[in-house]
Amino acid sequence: MFHGSMVALVTPMRADGAVDWDSLRALVDFHVREGTDVIVAVGTTGESATLDEDEHCAVIREVVRYAEGRVPVIAGTGANSTTEAIALTRCGRDAGADACLLVTPYYNKPTQEGLYRHFMAVAEAVPIPQILYNVPGRTGCDLLPETIERLADVPNIVGVKEATGKLDRAQEILARCGSRLDLYSGDDPTAMELILMGGKGNISVTANVAPKQVHELCAAAAAGDRATAETINASLAELNRALFLESNPIPVKWALHRMGLIPEGIRLPLTPLSEGYHAPLESAMRAAGISL
Questions:
Q1: In whole angstroms, what is the distance from residue 75 CA to residue 189 CA?
Q2: Which entry of 66, 116, 161, 200 is annotated as an active-site residue?
Q3: CATH assignment, 4-225
Q4: What's the average model confidence in pLDDT over 73-78?
Q5: Predicted TM-score (pTM) of this structure
Q6: So what's the pLDDT on residue 32?
Q7: Which of 12, 7, 8, 9 is nearest to 267 (CA)?
Q8: Residue tagged active-site, from 66, 133, 200, 253
């Protein structure tokens, strides 16, 4: 249903932490211009954990409005409360998003049965396409392939973002679910290989700062052009690493500020990028062909 480079868009903020709506509009235009295939609004890279519900819904509405149908918009609507996830997913639907992305419940550490019931409850409550999101390194919760297989026949569960970086895990999901569910990478360093093995795209942090390159990488991998994909992937390797020198989205927001695209705001408990990481990140950006 959704293919290619799918940017996990940051939420730009002013120095006082308020959402910068003008910069948000500029980022949407930037991604449309640079070839990003899908915009993901208020995913975890968009600091969903620190936006209140009204802000969360407002950012989704504004991204949909700014996009004006030029590019599909997926709304990040996951939460560790099933009731809250349903409410946010309704906001996404009402805002006109094309789909919603739901991260596994964090901190609660539910069982696999609890995860199944959580995602079923959201899918049954809100008739909009939904993509599951597994990132155990951040949530403390791992959505296993057998549970994904149980959810694959739910009509409005259309995909899964797999961010473990484990290609054997991706292969197992593809084997279990086949064409019933689209598989997306959530790990930039391994995205090329996941797409080459049959994944449909990459929900990417790196695409925030290198949208054209990530789009071209995804397109080459989807076409089975390994040689072109490997060349682009090699040019992005240093940047992929540098964008995780500190917790995401600290480095990527600093990089976008350095590019002049957003102010330097970020919300506590996250803090601006430590000064010692400025030079390594700048070096990685230059290596990827980004003008500073």
A1: 24
A2: 161
A3: 3.20.20.70
A4: 98
A5: 0.97
A6: 98
A7: 12
A8: 133
Placement of tokens 């002049």 in the chain: 260
161 is catalytic: yes
Provide DSSP, 198-234: T--EEEESGGGT-HHHHHHHHHHHHTT-HHHHHHHHH
Tokens standing for 146?
A: 């057998």
Listing DSSP states for 10-60 in one string gives ---B-TTS-B-HHHHHHHHHHHHHHT-SEEEESSGGGTGGGS-HHHHHHHH
Place of tokens 């932490």: 17
In Å, what is the CA distance from 13 to each residue of 99, 131, 167, 269? 25, 27, 35, 14
- On the question of pLDDT at 1 being above 90, the answer is no
Give residue for tokens 């990028």: 273
User: CA 34, CA 28: separation in Å to the nearest integer?
Assistant: 10
The pLDDT score that the predictor gives to residue 249 is: 98
The residues, any chain, with a CB within 8 Å of residue 258's CB and separated by 6 or more, are: 281, 282, 285, 292
Structure tokens at 133: 């999101």
If 0-12 CB within 10 Å is exposed, 13-18 middle and 19+ buried, where does residue 187 land? Answer: buried
